[in-house]
């Protein structure tokens, strides 16, 4: 965490990540709700909180990526299983198709953004 916050603020950030409401985070950390709301308006605290949330999200994404192949295998098994209920097979097939289309859309979007960035870069050099 950024060095501009104190230990109690670090504890509040951990509580904010682990509890769904500010009241619960306040109770868990022993800091009043009003103080937490004030800290959430402080730039150093906000930046530290944002950095920690970003790291936590990165860890979550990494874990999802680790098990994503297993998830696809499971969907494929259900989809191909003649003994599974028709509802289960259709749900699995639908999930696979939806993910395939989303992956295509993301890939297409990434390519378009890359082209736009290249175009802007070239325009910036010319101007």
What this model shows, in words?
- GO terms for molecular function: DNA binding.
- This is DNA-binding MurR/RpiR family transcriptional regulator.
- It comes from Ammoniphilus resinae.
- The chain has 127 residues and is mainly α.
- It has one domain (7-126).
- The chain is built from five helices and no strands.
- It has helices spanning 7-18, 22-29, 33-39, 43-80, 86-126.
- The mean pLDDT is 91.
Protein traits:
mainly alpha; 83% helix; 127 residues; flat
Shape: flat
Low-confidence stretches: none
- Rg, Å, rounded: 23 Å
Quaternary status: single chain
Q: Say how many strands there are.
A: 0
In total, the number of domains comes to 1
Mean pLDDT: 91
Beta percentage is under 5%
Helical content (DSSP H or I, runs of 4+): over 70%
Question: H/E element string?
Answer: HHHHH
**Main sheet characteristics:** none
Terminal CA distance reads 40 Å
Instruction: Count every helix, treating DSSP H or I runs of 4 or more residues as helices.
Output: 5
Which structural class matches the secondary elements? mainly alpha
Question: How are the SSEs ordered, and which strands pair?
Answer:
Elements (H helix, E strand, L loop, with lengths): L6 H12 L3 H8 L3 H7 L3 H38 L5 H41 L1
What is this entry, summarized?
This is DNA-binding MurR/RpiR family transcriptional regulator. The chain is mainly alpha-helical.
């Amino acid at each position: 965490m950024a060095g501009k916050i104190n230990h109690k603020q670090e504890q509040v950030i951990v509580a904010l990540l682990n509890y769904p409401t500010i009241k619960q985070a306040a109770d868990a950390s022993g800091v009043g709700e009003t103080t937490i709301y004030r800290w959430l308006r402080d730039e150093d605290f906000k930046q530290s909180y944002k950095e920690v949330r970003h790291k936590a999200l990165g860890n979550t994404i990494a874990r999802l990526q680790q098990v994503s192949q297993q998830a696809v295998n499971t969907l494929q098994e259900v989809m191909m299983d003649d003994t599974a209920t028709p509802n289960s097979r259709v749900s699995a097939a639908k999930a696979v198709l939806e993910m395939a289309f989303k992956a295509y859309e993301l890939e297409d979007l990434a390519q378009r953004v890359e082209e736009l960035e290249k175009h802007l870069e070239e325009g910036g050099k010319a101007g």
